[in-house]
Automatic annotation (TrEMBL), chain B:
This is Sugar ABC transporter permease. It holds the Pfam family BPD_transp_1. The keyword Mitochondrion does not apply. It is found in: Cell membrane. The keyword Membrane applies. It is a multi-pass membrane protein. Keywords: Cell membrane, Membrane, Transmembrane, Transmembrane helix, Transport. It comes from Microlunatus endophyticus. InterPro entries: ABC_transporter_permease (IPR051393), MetI-like (IPR000515), MetI-like_sf (IPR035906).
Length: 285, 305
């Protein structure tokens, strides 16, 4: 034990680049965080302190910007809508991915290969291409300006099906043979044997969909027009549109709408980083 | 003998047609919201679309595509493609090089380096609208932090988002800030999988860190570089939100990329048919890029054996 520690210590001393590397890294890290920190500092500054150049970096800790911004728009409604939409999307995605992932991995049926190929092809179609036709289809189906159009299209995910199929493929066949002898059908096999084992993959898939819903902008912006059903990022954009010069209020609104995502990230970092190796980026723009 | 008979007549739940019911919900959603709309987009692109009453739309064949070549609509298709190329090429080249450098700086396991990696990845998970608004404030010509920083080196205040020369670079700076955490983590993942033996051998042979990186580390990272380049070009080709919030495609048409023009033509100017044609072009470019990635990774794999 002591010898390894000694070797490690010596190795550390022998690397002169180590300290330099860490100092450079910290400076870069702070540079990346600077816009977020500055937003927060602006949100607690007085108006007169903000309008000076060069900027005064230490704020007056004026929290009144938060109450002013909060009262200027139906934020509670936006938050509620976002949570409702994200919750439904996550539930749907988990259900469709579990079912399809299980069928593609474990079950045998005619056309399995062809159907899976279709799933993979769906991944190649970008959302931008779908905006126009889906807008026209949504209007025709009476889905324009509804919660449904913000939920249903995101209710199945190639990433989710792919990830759960990969996971179910790793399960030993004996697991299902035993269940088969006890007379279990495919539904019981999935929900009482396979799904409980797939929890880590399910968290990853759910998180991916949750982030997509929380950060969604273009889709709900174009597919809805009523404030009463719009989500948080669309609300934030229209808040900026109505008073684009109230910088302290805007920075307060950016802060209270973004802090939940930052907290989620800090608590579930491991999953986010694993997600970075996933097939589909988490961003829906 | 008796065993085979038994298996033949036994209930085989994993071969049951219930499988079709299992894939049905996902396939139905894909059909209604992805597959049919894709086909529909091709259809709409052959019409002069009447957005108030689609029954009054007239079939015009390839006229919307001809309009692109002839530059009928403002801004011309050629200029839109030029602006897109400017953005995509900058994002891919700068994004790949910077995230490689950052990954080399950060890939070792230490508390400090891990915290810095988290800081980078944090910017990637923040919402595009919220952080674009942050950067509108950063780039504010009179009170923004960007001007305060360049002021330190004696540069006069710049109207970042309204100046022909700085509007696109400003969006590129924002987009790099937002995206680079993701690609850095991908490269960090790559660096932790490659063999250290080769690097040690190179070091024993007297290669400096730069040569070791170029001739030993980089070739082993090739699959990751391909992934990052393709993901980067596809996502920046489709980028929309930062253009919408930061510049609105301006000044003039200086930041009107293909993704932004598609929105502008369809939802602001109501040239739905022409916009659908733009969407089809965007789709075909995306498919080509994805196929290029497949081909590249396949040839890599076969050259390994």
């Amino acid at each position: 034990m002591t010898t390894t520690a000694g070797v490690l210590a010596r190795r550390r001393r022998l690397r002169p680049g180590r300290l330099v590397r860490q100092v450079v890294a910290v400076i870069i890290g702070l540079a990346f965080l600077a816009p977020l920190i500055w937003t927060f500092l602006t949100s607690v500054s007085t108006e007169s302190d903000v309008y000076r150049f060069p900027p005064k970096l230490w704020p007056a800790w004026d929290w009144s910007n938060y109450s002013r911004a909060w009262q200027a728009a139906p934020w509670l409604r936006y938050f509620g809508n976002t949570i409702l939409i994200a919750g439904c999307v996550v539930a749907l995605v988990l259900a469709t991915s579990l079912l399809a992932g299980f069928a593609f991995a474990v079950m045998k049926f005619r056309g399995r290969g062809a159907l899976f190929l279709i799933v993979m092809a769906v991944m190649m179609v970008p959302q931008t291409v779908l905006l126009i036709p889906n807008f026209l289809i949504a209007q025709r189906l009476g889905l324009y300006d509804t919660y449904a159009i913000q939920i249903l299209p995101w209710g199945a995910s190639v990433f989710g099906i792919f990830l759960l199929r990969q996971f179910f493929n790793t399960l030993p066949p004996e697991l299902f043979e035993a269940a088969e002898l006890e007379g279990a059908g495919p539904i019981r096999m999935l929900f009482s044997i396979a799904a409980p084992l797939a929890k880590p993959s399910m968290v990853l898939v759910g998180l991916n969909s949750f982030m997509g819903s929380w950060n969604a902008f273009v889709w709900p912006y174009l597919m809805t027009k009523s404030d009463s059903i719009r989500p948080i990022e669309v609300g934030l954009q229209s808040f900026y549109g109505t008073d684009g010069t109230d910088w302290t209020g805007l920075c307060a609104a950016v802060t209270f709408t973004t802090v939940p995502i930052i907290l989620l990230f800090l608590f579930l970092q491991k999953y986010f980083v694993n997600g970075a190796y996933g097939v589909e980026g988490a961003v829906r723009g | 003998m008796s065993e085979t008979v038994q298996t033949r007549f036994r209930f085989r739940p994993l071969r049951s047609p219930v499988a079709y019911l299992f894939v049905l919900p996902a396939m139905a959603i894909f059909a209604v919201f992805t597959i049919i709309p894709t086909v529909y987009a091709f259809g709409v692109s052959t019409f002069k679309w009447n957005y108030l009453n689609s029954a009054l739309s007239t079939f015009v064949g390839l006229d919307n595509y001809k309009a692109m070549i002839q530059g009928t609509y403002e801004p011309s298709f050629a200029s839109t493609m030029g602006v897109s190329l400017y953005f995509v090429a900058s994002m891919v080249v700068l994004g790949t090089i910077l995230s490689l450098l950052l990954a080399v700086l950060l890939y070792r396991a230490s508390t400090v380096l891990l915290a810095v990696r988290s800081a980078l990845f944090l910017t990637y998970v923040t919402p595009l609208v919220a952080t674009s608004l942050v950067w509108v404030w950063m780039f504010n010509p009179r009170f923004g932090l960007a001007n305060a920083v360049v002021n330190l080196v004696g540069i006069h205040p710049v109207d970042w988002l309204n100046n022909t020369h700085t509007a696109m670079p400003s969006i590129i700076i924002y987009s790099l800030w937002h995206e680079i955490g993701f690609t850095t983590i991908v490269f960090v993942g790559g660096l932790t999988t490659i063999s250290t033996e080769l690097s040690e051998a190179a070091r024993i042979d007297g290669a400096g860190p730069a040569r070791e990186f170029l001739y030993v580390t980089l070739p082993q990272l090739r699959p990751f570089v391909i992934f990052v380049v393709v993901i980067g070009s596809v996502s920046s080709l489709h980028a929309f939100t930062q253009f919408f919030v930061l510049t609105g495609g301006g000044p003039g048409y200086d930041t009107s990329t293909l993704g932004f023009q598609l929105y502008q033509q369809a939802f602001v100017l109501r040239n739905t048919g022409y916009a659908a044609a733009l969407a089809v072009v965007l789709f075909l470019i995306t498919i080509l890029l994805s196929l290029a990635q497949l081909a590249a990774s396949r040839s890599l794999r076969s050259s390994d054996h």
